[in-house]
Amino acid sequence: MIAAAMIAAARPTSTWYLVLAAVLFGIGTVGVLVRRNPLIMLMCVELMLNAVNLSFVALSKKLDDTGGQTTVFFVMVVAAAEVVVGLGIIVAILRRRPSATADDLAELKG
Amino acid sequence: MMQLFVFICAGLMILVGAVGVITRSHPVHAALSLILTLFGVAVLYIAQDAQFLAAVQVVVYAGAIVVLFLFVIMLLGVDKIEDLQIEPFPLQRKMAAVVGGGVIGLIAFAAISSRDNIGVVKPPQSAAVAAVGAVDHDSNIRSLARDLFSDHVLAFELTSVLLVIAVVGTVLLARRAPRTPETPAESPS
Fold this sequence. Notes:
The structure holds 2 protein chains of 2 kinds.
Chain A: H1 2-9, H2 14-34, H3 38-63, H4 67-96
Chain B: H1 2-23, H2 27-47, H3 51-76, H4 92-113, H5 127-132, H6 139-151, H7 153-174
């Protein structure tokens, strides 16, 4: 009964958001390390960027400072540029070898 | 109670989508899982009074970036099912799991152990104000714009330079080499 009341009264604090962002960042890290398709690796980098953005917004709310949200705005702009350049590189590679994985890039070694 | 419900639902969306991105063998399914995660993050932005960023998140990420991913997948015809059983070198999965678990553990430990040290918690809004709805709903965009266009206006201008460089560089990277028979280096002999 008391536990149910505590759960009902619980409000998600910024610590909850930070822990959720940490889990999301870890999942993105594992994806970058495990997957071999370069497109999926780029998506996992997006996951990590979103985790960082989430923690920025959580701290911006907690500290009552808009600077965190401004930073998230810039991160989004840089993420868009990063995706454009990354996909350009992937297009250039995959056009030459349609089934290239990240491991095949080891052939670039002399 | 409502906030808790929203947090749990959005958190489940985020985690299910993120796990889907790294476990689905089909790239299109992974991109759709990424959309689920991005929408969950947008919901949490709204829950934290960052309405403008939520809109930008939906428009830019789910609207532009994921469409760009799908476009490249379809353009190149790489929407083949990838064999997830291949491990390029032994112990890669286990080492990745250890690294990921370590990252999660460290950041979560840091966040939990410093929860009383970060800043000051604002006093909760009185129920009367929340009920009347006297909250200024434009305050988020207004304060964000004031911060962006006064303190960070130089960085804002530099992002335009960055975007132009990215676009020009991508055009140079992705276009096919022009077939000019005049140049001797290009001509097959």
